[in-house]
Amino acid sequence: LKKYAFSFIFYFHSLKMIHHELGQRKKKVYLDNEKTSFLDGSSGKEELSRKRESKHETYGMWWSDTEIDWLAYMQQVEGFINGTFDYTLLKGDTGPLVYPAGHVYIYTILYYLTNHGRNIFVAQLFFTILYLCNLIIVFFINIRSGQIPSIFLIFMSCTSYRIHSIFLLRLFNDPIAMFLFYIALLCWIYRQWTAGIVLYSLALSVKMNILLFSPAVAVICLYKRGLQDSCRLFALAFLIQVTLAIPFLHTNPLGYLRSAFNFGRVFDHRWTVNWRFVPEEVFTHKCFHCILLLFHIILVFYFLYIKFFRSRFTSIRNAVMVAVDNGTVHLKNQEIVLLLAGINLIGISFSRSLHYQFYVWYYHLLPFLSWQTPYSTTSKLTLLGIIEMCWNVYPSTLWSSLLLHFCHAILLVGLFLQPDLNSKKKST
Question: Any transmembrane segments, and where (predicted)?
Answer without folding.
Answer: 120-141, 171-191, 197-221, 233-250, 283-305, 336-359, 398-417
